[in-house]
Amino acid sequence: MPVKIPDALPARSILEKENIFVMTEKRALSQDIRPLRLLILNLMPLKSKTETSLLRRLSNTPLQIEVDLLHMESHTSANVSSEHLTTFYKNFNAIENSTYDGLIVTGAPVETLDFTEVDYWDELCKVFSWAKKHAFASLFLCWGAQAALHYYYGVEKYPLASKMFGIFEHTARISDIPLTRGFDDVFKAPHSRHTEVHEEDIERIRGLQIISSSEEAGIYIVAHEDGRQVFVFGHPEYETDTLAQEYWRDSAKGLAIDVPKHYFPHDDPTQNPIASWYAHGQLLYTNWLNYYVYQTTPYDLSLLPAAEVAEETPAKPKHKIY
Length: 322
Description:
The structure is a single chain. By secondary structure, the chain is an alpha/beta fold. The chain folds into 2 domains: 3-236 and 279-303, 3-Layer(aba) Sandwich (Rossmann fold), CATH 3.40.50; 240-274, no CATH class. The protein contains 10 helices and 12 strands. It has helices spanning 10-17, 25-28, 47-59, 82-88, 92-95, 121-134, 143-153, 199-203, 242-252, 278-294, and strands spanning 3-5, 22-24, 36-41, 65-70, 89-90, 100-105, 135-141, 158-172, 187-196, 208-214, 218-224, 229-232. Strands 1, 2, 3, 4, 5, 6, 7, 8, 9, 10, 11 and 12 form a 12-stranded mixed sheet that branches. A hairpin with a 4-residue loop joins strand 11 (218-224) and strand 12. Helix 1 (10-17) crosses helix 3.
């Protein structure tokens, strides 16, 4: 089944060329079903690329999905036209009274700033507060995950000695839950970040659980035991060349940046990278959509219960997730 998107969104033609089924607004009007309603808060500078990557992952399921795109009005985006934002994106005022089955918040290249130094922090906090009653399930990515953990639970982020940059092996620390259903014993995922969260800070929060981690890259997935909040500290939506583009961009600027680890064949940036994380990246989005959104959201979105926010506790959270 397709993702429903605006007829003129640039991602539409790209996905259709890849034989990915997307549905235009006009055709969706004839469908006599209620699609899942998703809101994507896109904080990335290259918005069109991020839209396309996320829609690739979301479209490869048997579910029909209706997507709204949200941007921060308090931030001026330098890498996207105002026409694109006006045509395809909504601001917070436009969605404030709406309800959604799911919310996705992307990462953002602002990790080295304190949260309160980010120019749209106050507006982002409004979205986080709104989401507790207006979005049944939330998926937070990379810096978006760090920001959400800080807002909801007071979890701090810590600077890394060097950028966590590359493709890293992970294991599922809790494997008998729907989110990790079908995962291999060892799987790979991209990371591109300058900060991290600490395991002991997560374990102090009642209800939060560390689902997956990496010996080299640290914590990968954290979730609330009720499944309504999932925090992913990597980028499972990344394309094959995304890390390469980041590397060559920063190298061209003369910035100090290491070659992304375990990415180029033989760590040689003159060779083409090989995607080794697509299957698990896809499975993560599919499992989240199916088990944490589709099978749990009330049919009548006006009946959404408010999400619980856990409190700090010295006790280790129980194994419970959904």
